[in-house]
Amino acid sequence: MTKNIEFIIVVGIDMIKLGVRGSVDSANHILIKIDDLTLMTTENLFLAGEEYRIKTGKNLVQLLNSLSKDHEISVKSNVADEIENVLSLKNNEIKKYVK
Question: Helices (DSSP H) in the chain: which residue ranges?
Fold first, then answer.
């Protein structure tokens, strides 16, 4: 019998930053940089389809809201605009972290 246990340990994080990877024409991936660790969405957002982008947007907002309780999150204005546009976020959920 196999048991899967999931947990998150967050210790000593200085800064969480968001970024976009792609070309001038499209954003392909969302990047989350936590100090020296960079996480990236697995699917190409340009090719993944609207349903995937909406789900990714909701998950990203939940993650940031949770992390922001104990950590500073920094997003540039143009990056926040691009992420909200690509992930169909309508309520400035990312822009509230613009520094």
Answer: 45-48, 50-67, 77-86
Supply the pTM of this predicted model.
0.77
Distance CA 35, CA 16 (A): 7
Q: Which residues of 9-41 are buried (b: 16+ CB within 10 A; e: fewer)?
A: eeeeeeebbbbbeeeeeebbbbebebeeeeeeb
- In this structure, the dihedral spanned by the alpha carbons of residues 15, 36, 48 and 82, taken in order and rounded to 10 degrees, is 40
- SS3 category, 87: coil
Structure tokens at 37: 């660790």
* Segment 5-33, tens digit of pLDDT: 544 444 566 778 888 888 877 788 888 88
Residue 97, by phi and psi: left (phi above 0), alpha (psi -120 to 50) or beta?
alpha
